[in-house]
Hints:
Layout: E1 4-10, E2 13-20, H1 23-38, E3 48-56, H2 59-75, E4 79-90, H3 98-102, E5 107-108, E6 161-171, E7 185-196, E8 199-207
Amino acid sequence: METGYRVIDHTADMGLEVYGRNRDELFRQGTAGLIDLLVNRNELTADAARLVHVEGVDPTDLWINYLREILYLFNGEGFLVREVGELTFADPVTDATAATADAGAGFSSAAVPTVAPTVVPPGDISADSTTPPAIDRDEEGEVDAAAPNSVTGDGGRERLYRLTASCRGEDYHPARHALKTEIKAVTYHHAEVRETPAGWRGVFIVDV
């Protein structure tokens, strides 16, 4: 699978279809694509660091919560991410892996070298990009917290996905950074992240 991202047509909003050879690359490319919608990412420096911690009840929820946190760094703190270093994923604990997970063996922290984004021509969302998320959501796409067993399985064992990302970038300066698009939010509409035989694929739509 080709690594990179492409802008997809979506009514009045904007979206990206993102590709990566593995999950780390997918999240790095999602970051790069989101920042490139805001400013010219190649003009940013990597002089300062931020550590991002997010959780999700399923892979799509983790994907959107992560991208929302990257956007919040800009909208809320005026910080633009230039690159993402180490990514640490912690998948849900199951009964079969509880013993090793409790001992600290359920975490994957292998870092993959950063890959420069490759922008490919715009196109429509592919027909298989509307796969429904595994967790119950309301009509706005938000996770339904009232749904039974949405976060814990039988016996109350936690089913949260977690991610810690080491990000580097710089503070936003209007005189140096031309803002290309004002993004209000990353939405759940058409949101998707999944592993395919060729690699990983993700989709997200932003509210502009």
